[in-house]
Design brief:
This protein is α/β, with parallel strands linked by helices and about 240 residues long. Helices cover about 35% and strands about 20% of the residues. The protein contains seven helices and eleven strands. Helix 1 crosses helix 2. The chain starts with 7 loop residues before the first strand and ends with a strand. The structure holds uridine-5'-diphosphate (UDP). The site of uridine-5'-diphosphate has 23 residues, from helix 2 and helix 4.
C-alpha cells in the first residue's frame, strides 16, 4: 500500500477557508468537510498540527484608524474562535485534539508549550495552534513557519481558498496567468508573488521548511497532497 510522504505536518488553514460561501464567519458544513480530511490524515498515522487564521472575522491590517496593535490582538482572538470550531468538529468525529494558545486563556485551552505539543502529536492527538505567535505585526503564515520549525515538521501544507497554487500574476485579473509547479523561496521573495508575507517566506527559507500551496475546495485535497499527488505548488 502507498505510504504518506510525511510523518509530521503543519496544516495552515486560513480563516477564509472556514467561511464557505458565506461572506463572513463560519460555515459549519465546510468545517466538517475539513475536519473529515484531517481525520483522514490521522487514520494514515500522520501527526497533524494545525495553525488556523482569522481572516473570516478580522485582520489587523484591515482596520482604518484603530491602533494597529489593538487591531492585531483582535485578529489573534479571531483565530481562537476558529480553533474552537475546528476542535468541536474534530471531536464530534472522535478525533482527539488539543488547542494551544499563544496568549494564555486557560479556561478554554492550554497555553502553548512546545514539548507538550510534541507529546500530544506523538500520542496521535491533533494539536491546534491558536492566537498566532502571540505578537502583533505577525501573521498566521509566519506562525505556521515558526511552529513548523519548533516542532520539526516535515512540511507546511498551506491550504488556500479560491486559488489552487502560486501563479505569476493574479488569475482573477489575468486569464493568462501561469501556475508554478515548483518555486524556490528566493523567487517567492524577489518576485513578490503575494503567496505569503516575506517574514513567513524568510523563516521557511532559512530553516529549509518546504511548503505545498494548494486549493482546499476540491474534495480530499489535504489527503491527496500528503499521499504525494502533484497538486498545487511546491516551495522550497
Ligand atoms: N495576528 C497577529 N499576530 C500573529 C498572527 C495573527 O497579530 O502572530 C493577527 C493579525 O491582525 C492578522 C489576524 O491576526 O491579520 C488574522 O490572521 P491572518 O490574517 O494571518 O489570518 P488568515 O489570513 O490566515 O485568515
Amino acid at each position: 500500500m502507498k505510504k504518506p510522504l510525511y510523518n509530521r505536518v503543519v496544516l495552515k488553514i486560513s480563516g477564509e477557508a472556514l467561511k464557505g460561501e458565506k461572506g463572513f464567519g463560519l460555515d459549519e458544513v465546510t468545517i466538517l468537510d475539513i475536519a473529515q480530511q484531517i481525520k483522514g490524515l490521522q487514520e494514515l498515522n500522520v501527526e497533524v498540527a494545525i495553525v488556523v487564521g482569522g481572516g473570516n472575522f478580522w485582520r489587523g491590517r484591515s482596520s482604518k484608524d484603530m491602533d494597529r496593535t489593538t487591531a492585531d490582538y483582535m485578529g489573534m482572538l479571531a483565530t481562537v474562535i476558529n480553533a474552537l470550531a475546528l476542535q468541536d468538529a474534530l471531536e464530534r468525529m472522535d478525533v482527539l485534539t488539543r488547542v494551544q494558545t499563544a496568549i494564555e486563556m486557560r479556561q478554554i485551552a492550554e497555553p502553548y508549550i512546545r514539548r507538550r505539543a510534541v507529546r500530544h502529536l506523538e500520542k496521535g492527538r491533533v494539536v491546534i495552534f491558536a492566537a498566532g505567535t502571540g505578537n502583533p505585526y505577525f501573521s498566521t503564515d509566519t506562525t505556521a513557519a515558526l511552529r513548523a520549525a519548533e516542532i520539526e515538521a516535515d512540511v507546511i501544507l498551506l491550504a488556500k481558498k479560491g486559488i489552487d497554487g502560486v501563479y505569476d500574476s493574479d488569475p482573477m485579473e489575468n486569464p493568462n496567468a501561469q501556475k508554478f509547479d515548483k518555486l524556490n523561496y528566493k523567487d517567492v521573495l524577489n518576485l513578490e508573488l503575494g503567496v505569503m508575507d516575506s517574514t513567513a517566506a524568510s523563516l521557511c527559507k532559512d530553516n529549509k521548511i518546504p511548503i505545498i500551496v494548494f486549493g482546499i475546495e476540491e474534495s480530499n485535497n489535504i489527503v491527496k497532497v500528503v499521499m504525494g499527488e502533484k497538486i498545487g505548488t511546491q516551495l522550497n
